Every structure is written in C-alpha cells, then in structure tokens.
Amino acid sequence: MPEKPAMKKRKEWFFITPLKIQYTNEMEKALHGAHGIGYETYRHDCGKRIEVEKRREEEYVESKIVAENIGGVLSSGT
After folding, report:
1. Is the pTM of this model over 0.70?
2. How far apart are CA 28 and CA 75, in angstroms?
3. pLDDT in tens, 13-39
4. Which InterPro entries did the record assign (predicted)?
C-alpha cells in the first residue's frame, strides 16, 4: 500500500468563532454522512470543527494529487 504524501504544515493563525449559518436539510445530511456530526455540533464544538476541517484539508490535498496524476495521463495521450 503506497504511503500518504507528507502534508506541508501551515504556519497560519486563525480564530474560531461561533458560526452563524443557515443550512438546508441536504447540507445537514451531507455533513452527517461525511463526518458523522450535524451542523449544531459543528457550530458549537470547536474541537469537532477542527477535526472536520483537518479531514477536509487532507481530502483536498489527496484530490489535487489524483487530479494532477489524471491530468498527466490524459495529456500524454495514453
């Protein structure tokens, strides 16, 4: 099984504030399906929100790598 590429650590500071968002039933289902929590928990539990955002960041990096690999295969004509 191939190893995951090392993620670059960001040296950014950020503030976590309570979210004031309106969400649809579909958004609630998607968040719960992908991360196992609902928006109320996401809004109020900073620890859970950080876990979700870290997972989203990892998935984003992985998808960029896949897209780059697919792009290279498609552009090479194979």
Report:
1. no
2. 38
3. 666 666 677 888 999 999 999 999 998
4. YuzK
Structure tokens at 16: 């976590």
Of 3, 8, 1, nearest to 60 by C-alpha is: 8
Which single residue is written with the structure tokens 């539990």?
45
DSSP secondary-structure letter at 4?
A: P
Residue with tokens 């503030």: 15
The span from the CA of 55 to the CA of 49, in Å, is: 10
Q: How many residues does the chain have?
A: 78
Residues 40 and 29: beta-carbon distance below 8 Å: no
Q: Are 50 and 16 in contact (CB under 8 A)?
A: yes
Tokens of 59: 């998935």
